[in-house]
Every structure is written in C-alpha cells, then in structure tokens.
Amino acid sequence: MKNLSVTLSSLALVAVGVLYFLHFSSKGSSTSSSEVARPGDFQIAYINSDSVLKHYEFVKINMEKLEAKGKKLDQDLQNRAQSLQNDITAYQRNYGNMTIGQAKAVEEDLGKKRQNLELYQRGLEQDLMTEQSTITEELYKKITAYLKDYAEQKQLQVVLKYNPGSDLLYGSASIDITNEVIAGLNEIYKKDQSGANGKVKSDSTAKKK
C-alpha cells in the first residue's frame, strides 16, 4: 500500500499554477474592417495576469471549490486505502491457519481490490483534471470576451499580458489597465451570480406553488 500515492488535494492546489500560464490577449479596433489603422493611431495596453488571477472572484471561488472537492475525494481515497490495508493485515495475521487454497483465494481477492482502488484513484484524478480544464477554458473565454469589448470602447488595437514569464519586459503605468479590467470582470461576475441566484430562488418558489 505504500506505493499508492494520494494526490487529489495537491492537484487542486496546483490548479492555480496551471491557470497562471493562460495567455490573455485581445485585439479590437474602432475602425471598420475596410479601414487600416495608421501607425499614429495604434493604441496598446497591457494587464498584469498575476493580479487578475489573484483578484478575479471567478478564479478565487472556483479554485476554493476545486480544492475543497479535492480534499473530500482525497479523504475518501484514504479511507478506501486504509480498508484495504486492514484486509491485508488480517490476511497476514490469519495466514498460518489457512489452507493453500484458502490463502490463494484471499490473495486473488486482495489483488482485485488493489487494482480496483488504483483504477478508482486514476478516475478521481482524471475527473478533477477535467474539471480544472473546464474552469481554465471558461476563465479564458470570460477574460478575452471582456477585453474585446473593453478594447472597442477604449479604441485599443492590442491588449498584452504581463507577468515574469511573458515577453513584455516593460510597460508604462499609463497603459496598465489591470485594475480597470479586474473591476470590470468582478462587476460582471457579481451580476451574473446575482442573476443565477435569483433564477434559482424563483424556480424554487414556483415549485412550491
């Protein structure tokens, strides 16, 4: 049983690190498709992706949920592993009183239980990784959609991403739109959550009638 690693909680914690590498970019223009922006008209801005991930409520709430789920599944896996270990210990304790046939049957049963546990573990890890991937994809869509609208309103042609690993080595504070973007994203997320909660409440009331 020592070879059975339990990693679900750590997977949930690593989720934030995975999201860290998201490439947020958006291109927008106030001109029509038939017009070409002149060099003097070219407008650019950037966001600090680390700050966005740290302060965007969508990220914080979903990572907390994913971490909580990971810990719950991890505990369930630990309990199953302990149950199997108890069976192995009982087999070792009673081995001297068993016939060869009985011992062989128990060993086969324990082998199947161990295989099933390992399959169960891999299934949980895959499920958690899939959920993590879904959150990452939704996060990307939310941010790029917001940046597209923001760029159109502010007449920006490009929005870059800045963090220690990005290609942007310097950006003037005058074109740093991080705080505005965070505020805008959180405002939309808050409205979406209020609307979702209101719908659930309304549906629940309707059922009671």
Identify the notable features of this structure and list them briefly.
68% helix, 209 residues, disordered N terminus, Protein Binding, DinI Protein, Chain A, two-stranded parallel ribbon, disordered C terminus, 2 strands, mainly alpha
Task: Kindly describe this structure.
With 209 residues, this protein is mostly helical. It has one domain: 2-Layer Sandwich (Protein Binding, DinI Protein, Chain A), CATH 3.30.910. The chain has five helices and two strands. It has helices spanning 8-19, 49-55, 57-94, 100-154, 178-208; strands at 44-48, 158-162. The protein has a two-stranded parallel sheet. It is elongated, with a radius of gyration of 26 Å. Residues 1-39 and 200-209 have low confidence and may be disordered.
What is the 3D form? elongated
Looking at the overall shape, the CATH architecture is 2-Layer Sandwich
- Residue-averaged pLDDT: 81
Domain unit count: 1
CATH superfamily: Skp domain
**CATH topology heading:** Protein Binding, DinI Protein, Chain A
Oligomer: single chain
Helix content: 55-70%
Q: What is Rg?
A: 26 Å
Secondary structure class reads mainly alpha
Helical run tally: 5
Profile the largest sheet: 2 strands, parallel
Contiguous low-pLDDT stretches (5 residues minimum) are 1-39, 200-209
The string of secondary-structure elements, in order, is HEHHHEH
> Order of strands in the sheet with the most strands?
1-2
Task: Please report the distance between the alpha carbons of the first and last residues.
Answer: 54 Å
Query: Can you identify the CATH class?
Result: Alpha Beta
